Amino acid sequence: MVSLIADQLADFEERIKAELRSDVAFIEAIAGDLVGAGGKRLRPSLAFLTGIALDAEAEATMRVALAVELLHSASLLHDDLIDDADTRRGAKAAFRRYGNVVSVMSGDYMLARVLGILAQQGSSGFTELMSDTAARICEGEVLQFQMATLETWDLPTYEAVIDGKTAVLMAAAVEGVGLVAGADAATRSALRTYGMAYGRAFQLRDDYLDLLGDSCTLGKPVGGDLREGKVTLPVLGLIEDGIAEALEIVRRHAGDPGDIERMVALVRAHGGDLRTQRAIASEVQRAVAALAPLPPGAAHDALLALPRAELERLT
Fold it and tell me: What is the pLDDT of residue 24?
């Protein structure tokens, strides 16, 4: 996959640096850290692969990739502050180094750059899509906090949270290219279904590994979500089934010695691990099936391989 879009990704790194350039040193530093950390660039990769599959205009595809990734980066700055996180991609979180005001305003600066890209693109459909995506991200974050505060732990609420946290951005990356490429309604719908399903599978796998993965492989301690008071799918079934011990661990944010290990044991004993694996497989199947309308080729194959890989990352 990487070789197929290597040139576009290299160009993307230069373009996003240019978008984030500022005369304000702190903004420049935060932006530089985010660009330097890079990450997997999954959302831009989705946009570029979709652009190849649809034979979309290169500059229009690039603008979609930039707008979606800048929105994602802005949300990371805000999320770290909300979650009181210590690190981001192995480095100290921006608000820890520069303070809340600088971190929040730098995130807002990125959102302002998104507005500029939308103006350049000149597509009312893509602007509307990005507006809806940003709103869904905010709703997902607030809903996650609301769920913990009111203890309204249930599957529909959890699904809405992971849609807002992850799926809507992946959907925007592929559907956005469909919009600017002038794809028909059926193709755009297929792309959105693919992006949402892949995004859910991606987040479900991340939630699974956060509790049930290997800390050495992950490069961080397991149980981070529990320590933040978040109930993810592996634990959700225990709460819905009224397992009192699991609820107590959640309520004290796994603060007692041995809480994480005990929750892992409870999850495995009550089938939370298998339930999550089945949910991931179901979303992967939905994502793969959605791509049927796209023309065959290397980009199509790469798009199929991405969600399928989530099933191989459960250790």
Answer: 87
